Amino acid sequence: MAKEKILRLKKQQVLFQISKLRKKAEGKHTMLVLNNIKCKMVHRIFTVIQRKSNFVNLHKFAA
Asked: What is the pTM of this model?
């Protein structure tokens, strides 16, 4: 169980890194990119608390 949580966290870190690199390639400023990532994290935290469930990445289910 702890292994799964660690793997999930590592996957999220990779997704944030990809997002960061993509925005930097678009020419965005570093602080703007970091602020966007921070907002994504806060949004996900409050959503998980509100739903009282684990985070589910809905983008992988989109067609």
From this structure: 0.60
